[in-house]
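Many introductory courses stop at the sequence. We go one step further.
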Amino acid sequence: MLDEIRNEHGERLDYAYHKGEGDRVVVIGHGVTGNKDRPALVALAEGLAAAGISALRFSFSGNGESEGAFTDSTITKEVADLGSVIDALEGHTICYVGHSMGGAVGVLRTATDERIQVLVSLAGMVHTKAFAEREFSDAIPDEGFMWDEPDCPLSKTYVDDMAAINSVAKRASEFDIPWLLVHGTEDDIVPIEDSRDILQHANEQTDLLELPGVDHVFSDDGAAIMVEKVVAWINQNL
């Protein structure tokens, strides 16, 4: 079992570790308003462990049971959180799997951190500014809420960070590792065009897997299909 993990602000990051065999480990990060216990992410971690690959799913600071304020949660801060998790996995061969906004986090971290040797983006967000404008334009920053969820206040800090990043598409050209993009054709939160767009900037080791009829959170049969495909791909590339 790993020790307690804290980020650069001293905030404890809640995680669950699924032990496999050897030194391979897959770190799993969630999307905006999510946490480590999203059903599809739990199913993926369990599928990896059953295949002999260790998995660590965690909640970014300010989310789930992790310490920190939700209103401080930004992509930039989560990139640093991911670095703290990787710090705790010294000596392991690491793959990172990011869902939704966690996918944007993965691109930015991988562009500057050679410790990530394999990358998977699940319904990965690419155009951050456009996402915030599309999904939260009806809420006033520091007054309103994300998708009218009282536990998820929309902060100006978050909106400004999304705008400053704008898009992570061109950052894809800054790393050359095996990368799998997975996106459902019925995703109405992050359009599949995000994955198609970033594929144009990615290296030749990148694959795009489009899942017909699957939504943003891989509900119903979507999770089983995703887990089967992703576990097999990771097992081959990690």
